[in-house]
Design goal:
The protein has 292 residues and is of the alpha/beta class. The chain is built from 11 helices and 11 strands. Strands 3, 4, 5, 6, 7, 8, 9, 10 and 11 form a 9-stranded mixed β-sheet that branches.
């Protein structure tokens, strides 16, 4: 059987006779639509489109196959809707950065269960620098400046960073001024290799001269390494607040630096028509906006 994704890409492209318009509807790129259609044509061994300079035209075989798929997808959607109405539970797909999920979302999910007992939530984690809304998510937490004109976004709180370490390391090193960081082990996030330089520039000081550097590929590992006393790390605030509240981390240097980025809740405009999405938006805003 051909890929369902390829069939859907062809059906939407055939309806619009445009890869670009199909891409907008499917929330993927035009090249991805074209690639899916090419894969389908290769699988079938048949050309489905005449590709002209500025337009698409269905071949005879393409028109016949498209008419069939149109009916098939219409029936599939109708049967699915009827099944969900009779038997199904509502599902919300939420995509979040891993550290956000661990430190902020998971500790609060019990209140979500109480609020929406008949709605399931599927949490998917993406890289912490996630700046695009995934096509398979209903809602997502994005980090950036809010420049997503095609999405509905809600500002949650700014991302700030602070130099942190274990209480034992601070007591041993006696950190008081910036120069006390010279010669210390610095902990670095692989995705933010220039974070210490940027931190120093924001404070108008020279970057600390590392005695040794530990590099990790996740914020969770960075924070854990700092809490274990391996060195000094730049950690996200308020995402790391629980570790400070518990005493696992303390500020090595007290100044916070504003990164100029904010965390946003985002969804596509058409999702606003779903009552369960509206409820989740209200829940997220109530739970997280106060964290700034």
């Amino acid at each position: 059987m051909p890929s369902l994704r390829a069939l859907r890409a062809f059906q939407v492209a055939g309806r619009h006779l445009s890869f670009k318009v199909a891409a907008d509807e499917l929330f993927i790129t035009p090249s991805a639509v074209s690639h899916q259609v090419r894969n389908l044509e290769s699988f079938l061994g048949i050309d489905l489109f005449f590709r002209k300079t500025r337009a698409l035209e269905l071949t005879a075989a393409g028109q016949k196959y498209h008419d069939f798929l149109d009916g098939m997808f219409a029936r599939l959607e109708a049967e699915t809707h009827q099944l969900l109405t009779e038997y199904g539970r509502r599902i919300i797909r939420l995509c979040v950065p891993p550290f956000f999920a661990r430190e902020l979302l998971l500790p609060r999910l019990k209140s979500f269960q109480t609020l929406m007992p008949d709605t399931d939530i599927r949490v998917v984690t993406q890289p912490s620098l996630m700046k695009e809304h995934p096509s398979d998510a209903d809602l997502s937490i994005l980090l950036g400046s809010g420049d997503w004109p095609e999405l509905m976004t809600y500002s949650l709180f700014p991302r700030r960073i602070v130099a942190a370490c274990s209480p034992a390391l601070k007591k041993e090193a006696g950190f008081e001024k910036y120069s006390d960081l010279d010669g210390q082990t610095l902990i670095v996030h692989e995705n933010r290799p220039h974070s210490w330089v940027n931190w120093a520039q924001a404070l108008n000081i020279k970057p600390p001269r590392a005695g040794k550097i530990f590099r990790f590929d996740s914020m969770a590992a960075v924070v854990l390494a700092a809490a274990e006393g391996l060195g000094v790390a730049l950690v996200s605030w308020p995402l790391s607040q629980r570790l400070f509240d518990s005493g696992a981390l303390v500020c090595a240097i007290s100044e916070e630096v504003d990164t100029g980025e904010q965390f946003y809740l985002a969804h596509r405009p058409e999702e606003q028509q779903r009552p369960e999405v509206e409820t989740v938006v209200e829940w997220v805003l109530e739970e997280f906006r106060s964290d700034g």
